[in-house]
Specification:
With about 100 residues, the chain is mainly alpha-helical. The chain has a domain of about 60 residues. It contains five helices and no strands. Helix 2 crosses helix 3. The longest helix has 25 residues.
Length: about 100
C-alpha cells in the first residue's frame, strides 16, 4: 500500500518523467510484438501492420495506462483549480453569484 501511494505521488509530481517512461515502455512492447510476427515469417511491413492492429492505437493505450495510475481525478482537479485562479486574476472585480441589488 505504501508503495502504491509512493507511485501515485511520483506520477503527480514527476508527470513528464512518467510520460517518458510510459512512451518508452509502450515502444518496447510494440517492438517486441513486431519481432514476434517477424519470427513467424512475416515481412517487416506486414509484422508492423499486424502489431498495430493487435496492440491498438498508442493514444488509447497510453490513456488506459494513465487511468490505471489512478491520478486522473487529482490531475483534473488541479487543472480546474489553476484555470479558476487564472480566470479570477483576469477579472478580479467580477462578483460571483447574484448581484447585490
Amino acid at each position: 500500500m505504501l508503495e502504491d501511494l509512493r507511485f501515485r505521488l511520483r506520477a503527480l509530481l514527476r508527470r513528464d518523467a512518467m510520460e517518458a517512461e510510459l512512451s518508452d515502455d509502450l515502444r518496447f512492447h510494440f517492438d517486441q510484438e513486431v519481432e514476434k510476427y517477424k519470427r513467424s515469417g512475416m515481412t517487416h511491413d506486414e509484422a508492423t501492420r499486424r502489431a498495430r492492429i493487435s496492440f491498438g492505437g498508442q493514444e488509447r493505450v497510453e490513456e488506459d495506462c494513465r487511468e490505471a495510475r489512478g491520478t486522473n481525478l487529482v490531475e483534473s482537479s488541479m487543472q480546474d483549480g489553476a484555470y479558476g485562479l487564472r480566470a479570477m486574476r483576469k477579472n478580479p472585480g467580477v462578483p460571483c453569484g447574484r448581484s447585490m441589488r
